[in-house]
Write a structure and sequence with these properties.
Layout: H1 2-38, E1 40-44, E2 48-53, E3 59-65, E4 70-77, E5 81-86, H2 87-97, E6 112-116, E7 122-126, E8 131-132, H3 151-154, E9 157-158
């Protein structure tokens, strides 16, 4: 009888160890995904929005104004690069492609950055720097509102998070 009890306990310990290993692996995967996402960022200056990719992989990005249901498709941002988009260009591109949309400088503080990691998981970064997963999957289709031939799109710079000054 004692051998049976010891055998059951050993099996329970093995099950617990296996469960811990699965949880640790899952946690490691989550941290890796979040680490990737933490290397994509944006900030605003008084005259521009700067979007940065500090990863060794290209990232599909877009800026959005959720309250107005508007977005700017920025396409793929090269590894370790950043783009600076003048506020006048953001407003101008929207005015050109969607004349009924009215975007002012007062709207820009509520900009959000949406981007996709290598596992096709969509992340959202708020203008305050907060990072999270959307409550629902953002709609990634519809009329693109930014022409990738705009000057700012061709003027990519090295991202400071990759060691650039």
């Amino acid at each position: 009888m004692g051998g049976l009890v010891l055998g059951v306990r050993a099996e329970q310990r093995a099950d617990r160890e296996e469960q811990r290993a699965v949880e640790a692996e899952s946690q490691l995967l989550q941290e890796k995904r979040k680490s990737f996402a933490e290397q994509v960022d944006f900030y605003r200056t008084s005259s521009a929005v700067v979007v940065m990719n500090g990863n060794p992989h290209m990232v599909d990005v877009r800026l959005s104004l959720p309250a107005k249901k508007l977005w700017w498709e920025l396409g793929g941002l090269s590894p370790c690069s950043q783009i600076s988009i003048p506020n006048t260009s953001l407003r101008g591109s929207m005015r050109t492609r969607m004349p009924s949309a009215h975007v002012t400088d007062a709207d820009l503080p509520s900009l959000m950055l949406e981007f996709t990691d290598p596992q096709n998981r969509v992340w959202i970064r708020g203008s305050g720097g907060s990072l999270g997963l959307p409550r629902r999957q953002p709609v990634m289709h519809g009329p693109g509102v930014v022409d990738l031939n705009e000057t700012w799109s061709r003027s990519r710079q090295d991202a400071p998070m990759c060691g650039a000054p």
